[in-house]
Write a structure and sequence with these properties.
The complex is a heterodimer of chains A (113) and B (112). With 113 residues, chain A is mainly β. Chain A has no helices and eleven strands. Chain B is built from no helices and nine strands. Classes of the chains: A mainly beta (113), B mainly beta (112).
């Protein structure tokens, strides 16, 4: 089944403790992206990647890192999480940067205390 | 980046058509209009997209104004399963804008 998977689905952590949220897709998609969703602010793009080793900032990249060493994986790294990064995170992928349809993962709910 | 404006919320009765408006007065000639929706507790899903002509697919229809400054997503017969947040976004896939700007969308409530 074609899908985007994220792990973990739920995470509670403390300020400053490094964490990684994994994202994997099995559709051989070139374009991958991370979003955060907050009440009243909608979906905001954090980082995106057009292909292996090619990443760029979205609208809210501060406090996040990403890497794209393999086509199928696009992990989101929070080196020193803070409470304002408490949010619902979605990973997405599409065939290419100019493709029309993005496929979204199920989301990761992160709480930083 | 061109912006879109949508009503915060709308209501519809089940089995009736729903017209979800989107204003994009600063749209450029190469911006495509995309619609996504997000069901409760799920990630967004693609609905439809268009450039100039009206478009139909199994999920919905997209009506684009002649001046392209507005568009309307049409659900022909709303069901309870259509209750979701609907996002209208613009993407310039020709000049190479690789960002997505979703905004806050329209929350559609479907009444039984």
């Amino acid at each position: 089944e074609a899908q985007v998977t994220q792990n973990p689905r739920y995470l509670i952590t403390v300020t400053g403790k490094k964490l990684t949220v994994t994202c994997s897709q099995n559709m051989n998609h070139e374009y991958m992206s991370w979003y955060r969703q907050d009440p009243g602010l909608g979906l905001r793009q954090i980082y995106y990647s057009m292909n292996v080793e090619v990443t760029d900032k979205g609208d809210v990249p501060e406090g996040y890192k990403v890497s794209r060493k393999e086509k199928r994986n696009f992990p989101l790294i929070l080196e020193s999480p803070s409470p304002n990064q408490t949010s619902l995170y979605f990973c997405a992928s599409s065939l290419g940067a100019q493709a029309y349809e993005q496929y979204f993962g199920p989301g990761t709910r992160l709480t930083v205390t | 980046d061109a912006k879109t404006t949508q009503p915060n919320s709308m209501e519809s009765n089940e089995e009736e058509p729903v017209h979800l408006p989107c204003n994009h007065s600063t749209i450029s000639g190469t911006d495509y209009i995309h619609w996504y929706r997000q069901l409760p507790s799920q990630g967004p899903e693609y609905v439809i997209h268009g450039l100039t002509s009206n478009v139909n697919n199994r999920m919905a229809s997209l009506a684009i104004a002649e001046d392209r400054k507005s568009s309307t997503l049409i659900l022909h017969r709303a069901t309870l399963r259509d209750a979701a947040v609907y996002y209208c976004i613009l993407r310039d896939v020709i000049s190479g804008t690789y960002k997505y700007i979703f905004g806050t969308g329209t929350r559609l409530k479907v009444l039984a």
